[in-house]
Amino acid sequence: MSPDAPDLDAALAEAHLPSLLMALVHLTGDAGLLTPERRPVYAPFTDPRDGGYAPKVQADLIARAKAAITAHLAGAPLPPAPSAATVRKMMDWIAGIDIPEPYAPFLTEELHLFDPDPKRPDWSDPALKAKAAGMRVVVVGAGMSGILAGIRLKQAGVDFIILDKNSEVGGTWWENTYPGCRVDNPNHMYSYSFEPNDDFPQFYSPQPVLRDYFLAIVAKHDLRRFIRLETTVEEAAFDEAEGRWRISVTTPSGARETLAADALITAVGQLNRPRMPDIEGLESFAGPAFHSARWRHDVDLTGKRVAVIGTGASAFQFVPEIAPKARHLDIFQRTPPWPIPSETYHSDVPEGVKWLMRAVPFYGKWRRFFLFWTLTDGFLPAVTADDDWRGGPHAVGAANAELRAMLVEAIRAQIPDRPDLLAKVIPAYPFGGKRALVDNGVWLSALQRANVELIDTPIARITPDGVVTADGVHYPADVLILGTGFQASRFLWPMRIVGKGGLTLDEAWQGDARAYLGIVTPGFPNLFMIYGPNTNIVVNGSIIFFSEGAVRYILGCLKLMAQIGAKSLEVRREVHDAFNARVDAANLKMAWGSPNVTSWYKNASGRVSQNWPFLLVDYWKATLAPDPADFILTAKAKADAPA
Ligand SMILES: Cc1cc2nc3c(=O)[nH]c(=O)nc-3n(C[C@H](O)[C@H](O)[C@H](O)COP(=O)(O)OP(=O)(O)OC[C@H]3O[C@@H](n4cnc5c(N)ncnc54)[C@H](O)[C@@H]3O)c2cc1C
User: Fold this and answer.
1) Is the Cβ atom of 543 under 6 angstroms away from ligand 1?
2) What b/e readout covers 494-503, taking b as 16+ CB neighbours within 10 angstroms?
3) Distances (CA, A) of 34 to 57, 90, 130
4) 438 C-alpha vs ligand 1 centroid, how far in Å?
5) CA 253 to the chain's CA centroid
6) Among residues of the chain, what percentage have pLDDT more than 90?
7) pLDDT at residue 641 above 50?
8) Which ligand 1 atom is at minimum distance from the Cα of 494?
9) What does the pLDDT read at residue 6?
10) In which order are the strands placed within the sheet that holds 263-266?
């Protein structure tokens, strides 16, 4: 056994058994292990670690795994790789259902058992390489998406630079330092598909771990030299004659500088610009007042009266952390969130599990695959509206109502003797109407503390010393914390982006941002967005998946331009419009498009401008490569073309 190996029995006792079964097939080459009694059965919100196997099956599996792992560590060679048909069967086995056929290539790629990195751009053709070197790209934003773009542009050999207004990279995971901030997708899935990390300390790691993950990726891919920090993009204008963007930035010294680029990639996030609530008197508050994304670590909350506005994802995480410190905490709620129970939300990854991921071939890959399947498209039917549903506005279909009943029960069980509180925390809107929040019980136990009050009467105004609700009650406060989210509908704001004919994005969109695949929009050639309109998700998966799709597509567009010597590439309006019509129709059929839901997913006109309403496999397919027929491609004049 390797020197850093823990007690193998202890490690196996912590193993996710269906993933262990998959590893065992690799270690033994025996596809005959995929027997019906070893097919897992998963019940929602239960610990699926044991796969629902009978105790005898569990013990047998662990004994076999122990023997195979011991032999492997002693140097036994791996048998030949399982055939494609066996891998296909293994997918069905670990998922516990027969995965529909169209998913097979998609999931095979996500699993990528053997290929080094199937999403790596291939610009190996020497002629293409030469053209790549002559192409200049500016990326705005050095968060998860901008870093990803940098990695792929560097691999392709394209000349690029990444600009970020902050003094460090990491975006979301650098800016949000509020107590309790952590990822709410399992971390082994919230990481780049090509950069797994077997050492995440928790199943849902806290913000410093995510920040350090992205810092380590920047170092590993040697991206620092391509990044300019404290550099804010103010404006970008497209020069039609030259087919180039002129980008006006404020540099660290405060001076203005103009950069030129053949293509502009925005990676500015949907959740980067804090939203301040429009409440009368906000400015008059005399004590410290701050947004959760601008946490004031210099303000000691010990013994203070604290007022929190909002019960969204951030407040859900920081309230349990600050409640024990504050003398009194008043939380002002507009609508309650849906909590999704997860026992492992704050749990450490046992050392044995980390070791299994590092040392047992393919265990970690199948574990990620399992998370990917069960937490993504597997969930979607339960949030899709059934046209024939007549069961009332609290649900959108029978499966949705069933899920609702289970979640309501989970809430009730946590609040046995506070009917007043119970009435406030059960959402009236359907499950899936807003992003559900992962929960291990700390939220509702915080709300039941003697020093905490949840107030659902609307706020009328803020005074120098507190908050007044519509019923005239004054809640005194020393500190005001705004957990009021971000300006999510204002894509690319506050940059001024000027496209063809001098039209700005603001004028083109009129408050209703739209793009084809969330990436390209008519009238703005050579502009590519990552995490753009309609690429957010409510229940199925992580944003990293979308950014990886968008970046692959963008690299495909740049390759197309290089191959044919195009100076500009602009999506055809009819392609864009037809796509958006499909998106709008599909969003209306989802829980988050329900007329009973008001949320940040909808813009001022009520249109869902944030969310992707289809399956993940649909985004994967759509972003594999651009279809040249979708674009107007303008060739370079002979004199402009590089030799
Ligand atoms: C608290 C919090 C928790 C989250 N948890 C999850 C989660 O669990 N799972 C999940 O999938 N998603 C989560 N998200 C969404 C998260 O934003 C994305 O997962 C991801 O981090 C987005 O990365 P990004 O690079 O696209 O954007 P960001 O991380 O927002 O980075 C954008 C970058 O662009 C820079 N920038 C913006 N405008 C300019 C400009 N004009 N000039 C120069 N630079 C500019 C910013 O400074 C920033 O560094 C969470 C978001 C928040 C706020």
Assistant:
1) yes
2) ebebbbeeee
3) 12, 7, 50
4) 19
5) 34
6) 79
7) no
8) 41
9) 65
10) 227-228, 159-163, 136-140, 263-266, 527-529
